[in-house]
C-alpha cells in the first residue's frame, strides 16, 4: 500500500503501533482525523503528550492517578488492612464496579512472564511487601487473571507473603451467576465443584 | 467507568472519538501508550498535528498529497484524457494495486447523501467539470461504491457530464473472479447476468 504522502504514512504507521489496529484500519482512522477542524486535531494530539507527562503512579499501590497518592489509598474510610492484588487499573475498575469491596488495592503492573522477559523484579512486588509490614495488613486477596503466568505469580506472591503469617486468599472462580450448567466450560464448572462451599455461607448475599 | 485520572479520561475520550473504537478499547490502547518511553509518545502525538498541517489536497484531482499537485497528476506518462472518479484515497490505492489503469483520478471526497447533509456543493464536482474542459478529457469512468448514495451521485455526474458529449463508463459489477456461483449473492450474480458481455472480449486478459 503506497500512500501518496509521507505525513499520511507516518500517521498510519503510528496508529498501527496500537495493539489490534492494522494498517487498513489505521488508514480509515487517519482519514477521519484529517477531516476534523484543526483545533480538534490539536486536542486529540495533545491528549497523549499530556497523558504521558501528567499521569502519575500512586506511590502506595501503583494505581494510575493525578496525584502521588491515589484517591483510594488516601481515603480514610477504606480498610487499609485488606489489600487486593491486581494486574492493572482495569481490574480495579471492575472490582470497584461491584461496590462489594472496601479494602485497598495493589497494582502489580503485569504478571511474571519469562517469555516476555518479565520477572518478579519488573513488577511492583517489593512495595507490596513493604506495605504489608508498615500498614499491618492482615489479609492479601490475590485477584490475578487465571493463566499460566497468573498462577505462577500467585504462587510466587504466596511464598513471599507466607513469612508474614497473614491471611492470603484468592477470589473464587466458577461458572457465572445465572449461567446454565450445560453451557458452562469444563474448567470453570470443575472449579465450581472442587471449590464448593457450605450452603449457609451463601445466605449473606 | 470512573477513571482515577482526568488526563487518562481525556486520552480515552479522544481515542474513542475514532470510528469503531469504544471506551473499553480506548482504555486498553491508552494503557499501552502510557507504557511507552516519552520520545515514542511524542512521535505518536506529533504524527497527527503534522498530518493536519502538512498533508495537502491535490489541486487537480483532490487526492491527498505532500505537494499541491499529486504524483499521479504530475506524471506525464499517465493518460490525462481518461479520468476515473472515486470517493476517496482508499479507492485510488485499490485501483493502483491492480496495475490495470493508466489514467488519472478525480476524488469526490464522498457521495451525495442528503441524510448526512452532503449535497453536490460539498463534493469536489465543479473541479471535475473544469478538468473535462481544460484537459480535453475523452472518457470519465465512474467508480463509486454501489449504494443508494453512490448510484444517486453516479446519475448526478452523468447528467452534468453529458453536455460535454464524451464517453461516460462505469466499472463492471458481478461475482468475484474465482467465486463459486452457488455461494454468490443474488444481486451480484444478477448483475453479472444482466450486464453479460461477448465472450471474445474476455480473451485480452
Largest interface: A-B, 59 and 59 residues
CATH class of the largest domain in chain A: Alpha Beta
CATH-scheme architecture of the largest domain in chain A: 3-Layer(aba) Sandwich
The total of beta strands of chain A comes to 6
Structural class of chain A: alpha/beta
Shape designation of chain A: globular
Order of helices and strands of chain A: HHHEEEHEHEHEH
Strand portion of chain A: 5-15%
In spatial order, strands of the major sheet of chain A run 4-3-5-6
- Give the helix proportion of chain A (percent range): 25-40%
Number of helices of chain A: 7
Give the CA-CA distance, first to last residue of chain A: 57 Å
Largest sheet of chain A: 4 strands, parallel
Whole-number mean pLDDT of chain A: 90
Count of discrete domains of chain A: 2
CATH topology of the largest domain in chain A: Dna Topoisomerase Vi A Subunit, Chain: A, domain 2
Keywords for this entry:
homodimer; Helicase, Ruva Protein, domain 3; alpha/beta; 205 residues; Dna Topoisomerase Vi A Subunit, Chain: A, domain 2; 2 domains; 40% helix; 6 strands; 12% strand; 4-stranded parallel beta sheet
Would you mind describing this structure in some detail?
The longest helix of chain A has 17 residues, at 38-54. The first copy, chain A, has helices at 6-15, 23-34, 38-54, 89-98, 126-134, 148-161, 186-194; strands at 56-57, 64-65, 79-86, 103-107, 139-142, 167-170. Chain A folds into two domains: 6-54, Helicase, Ruva Protein, domain 3 (Orthogonal Bundle), CATH 1.10.8; 75-171, Dna Topoisomerase Vi A Subunit, Chain: A, domain 2 (3-Layer(aba) Sandwich), CATH 3.40.1360. The first copy, chain A, starts with 5 loop residues before the first helix and ends in an 11-residue tail after the last helix. Chain A contains seven helices and six strands, in the order αααβββαβαβαβα. The radius of gyration of chain A is 22 Å and the shape is globular. Helix content of chain A is 40%, strand content 12%. In chain A, the strands form two sheets. In chain A, strands 4-3-5-6 form a four-stranded parallel β-sheet. At the A-B interface, helix 1, helix 2, helix 3, strand 2 and helix 4 of A face helix 1, helix 2, helix 3, strand 2 and helix 4 of B.
Amino acid at each position: 500500500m503506497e500512500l501518496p504522502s509521507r505525513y499520511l504514512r507516518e500517521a498510519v504507521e503510528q496508529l498501527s503501533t496500537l495493539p489490534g489496529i492494522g494498517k487498513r484500519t489505521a488508514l480509515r482512522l487517519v482519514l477521519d482525523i484529517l477531516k476534523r477542524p484543526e483545533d480538534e486535531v490539536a486536542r486529540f494530539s495533545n491528549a497523549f503528550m499530556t497523558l504521558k507527562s501528567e499521569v502519575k503512579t500512586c506511590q502506595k499501590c501503583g494505581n494510575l492517578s493525578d496525584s502521588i497518592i491515589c484517591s483510594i489509598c488516601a481515603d480514610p474510610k477504606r480498610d487499609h488492612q485488606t489489600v487486593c492484588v491486581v494486574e492493572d487499573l482495569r481490574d480495579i475498575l471492575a472490582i470497584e464496579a461491584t461496590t462489594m469491596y472496601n479494602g485497598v488495592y495493589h497494582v502489580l503492573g503485569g504478571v511474571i512472564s519469562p517469555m516476555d522477559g518479565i520477572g518478579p523484579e519488573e513488577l511492583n512486588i517489593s512495595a507490596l511487601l513493604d506495605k504489608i509490614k508498615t500498614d499491618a495488613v492482615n489479609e492479601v486477596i490475590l485477584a490475578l487473571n487465571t493463566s499460566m503466568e497468573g498462577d505462577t505469580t500467585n504462587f510466587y506472591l504466596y511464598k513471599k507473603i507466607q513469612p508474614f503469617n497473614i491471611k492470603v486468599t484468592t477470589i473464587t472462580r466458577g461458572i457465572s451467576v445465572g449461567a446454565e450448567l450445560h453451557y458452562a466450560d469444563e474448567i470453570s464448572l470443575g472449579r465450581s465443584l472442587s471449590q464448593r462451599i457450605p450452603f449457609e455461607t451463601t445466605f449473606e448475599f
